[in-house]
Amino acid sequence: MKTRLSICIPTYNREPFLRELLNSIVEQANPTDVQIAISDNASSDKTKELVDEFKKIYSNIVYFRWPKNMGADRNYLKAVEIANGDYCWLMGSDDYVPAEAIKKVLARLKDADIYIIGRTEANFHLEKLQDRCWLDETESDQDFNFLSKAEVIRYFNACRRLGGIFSYLSSIIAKRESWVRFPCEENFIGTLYSHVYILLSMVMNGCTLSYIKEPLIVSRAGNDSFLTDWVRRGLIDLRGYHQLGEVLIPDAEVRRAFWGVMRYEHTPINILKSKAMSGWKDWPEYKRLAHDIYSIPRWVSHLAEILYPPARLAFFVKRFYKSLLSS
Asked: pTM of the prediction?
């Protein structure tokens, strides 16, 4: 049975959060219109039992379980592969669908290749913190047709967070027949951005995108293992988006606009702070990426090595200085 919308959920050991998500879906969805597609990365908790429980109350659930953990990227891709909806709404398994959101999404689905929706950011207990839109606040709902270079640049220049260029899974709804035209290259498996490779490929091949400013998904904070280490997260983003730009965007002007979104998410000063936190180990890579993405002159990077010593070194220098004062 083909449906209009598949909600595609990659998951791994998140049974309590997945229960909340599934409840938020089945309370408002109709199995005729909405499929739930779950790809389980060999969870060791009771995820399978939970899915079996929900299959008894919701007839349109498809479930795939890997024999072993295959990493996040293959799990993302599998969730779409097993789906059969016209559109696939990618969904983090610890997020939450607010009331009426599915009805609103279905009403908005026309013929665009990609839909990007706003999100509500909540704390660990799903209490609202703030609403987040991905483009400049002055931008309203609109459609983009990426057949022209100027339109691609206009969209990238309007983005104010990486979510606008597909970093946040649960804000993305993609036409499945367009998605499958661009299989992910093996080099992007392990970057955490295999899905961005596909979506950016669609953009660079002239797809259409519909921007929906209204927050139609709730993002749970405090449960992303990558986000708990912001230094590592920053390097993951820099690596991933640098590689995406290098491989998929041959035009230098378009690539600069694409990389320019990074300035809003990871400012150059935060890159220097990351260097101080992480020490010397990753600094050569930070310097190389910052030079390409931010066009930071190399002499500035060399100056940063003096002004921003590694945190551990700064700690010992401070302690040594205090010992001199007390002696």
From this structure: 0.87
* Rounded-to-integer distance, Cα 217 and Cα 325, Å: 55
135 phi and psi angles, rounded to 5 deg: -100, 175
Q: Please state the rounded mean pLDDT for residues 231-236.
A: 76
Domain residue limits, the chain: 5-220, 230-315
**Phi and psi angles of residue 208, each rounded to the nearest 5 degrees, phi first:** -110, 145
Which CATH topology does 5-220 take?
Spore Coat Polysaccharide Biosynthesis Protein SpsA; Chain A (3.90.550)
How far apart (Å, rounded) are the C-alpha atoms in residues 87 and 4?
6
pLDDT tens readout for residues 171-230: 999 999 999 999 999 999 999 999 999 999 999 999 999 999 999 999 998 765 544 455
d(CA 205, CA 182): 10
Q: CB-based contacts of 89: which residues, under 8 Å, 6+ apart?
A: 5, 6, 7, 8, 105, 170, 172, 173
